[in-house]
Amino acid sequence: MTFRGIVTWFNIDEQPHATKYRHYIKQYLPAKPYKRGYKLYMLCGTDGFSYKFEIYIGDENNPKYRKPEEPDLGSSANIVLAVHLVKYGILCPGTMRRSRIPHCKLPSDKEMAKEKRGTSEEFVAN
To answer: What PANTHER family would the database entry show (predicted)?
Structure first.
């Protein structure tokens, strides 16, 4: 048996776990192939292995269960989380709504509709 080394690139994503059991943390996930089940957040490496997972129960943003240094993610979690991660030197790509970014320099939907099909714009913040 050979040791392959430690993976340096990771990905965090949600994964549904299908079940027919009744439980209060079971969710309806309309965009997934299995519509009902538990939602798991998985930490996976580039080698395809899952290194850690957490079961989503919905109380993670409750101040009672949150550490004092963790931010209140609220409804605009992706922006608050991105700002929090930058403090630790972690950059993250993602799609953000224009209305959530103050002083956004991206063109409006009307201006983008006038462009030819396949046109895209990007905005990089620091």
So the answer is: DDE_TNP_1_7 DOMAIN-CONTAINING PROTEIN, PIGGYBAC TRANSPOSABLE ELEMENT-DERIVED PROTEIN 3-LIKE
35 touches 48 (CB < 8 A): no
pLDDT digits (tens, 9 = 90+) for 37-83: 888 888 888 888 888 888 887 776 677 777 777 777 665 567 777 77
d(CA 55, CA 96): 25
- Write the secondary structure of 86-116 as one string of H (helix), E (strand) and C (coil): HCCCCCCCCCCCHHHCCCCCCCCHHHHHHCC
The token pair that represents 72 in the structure block: 């209140």
Q: Do residues 6 and 43 both lie within one domain?
A: yes
**Tokens standing for 13?**
């994503």
Q: Are residues 52 and 80 in the same domain?
A: no
Token pair 């993250």 in the structure block, residue: 92
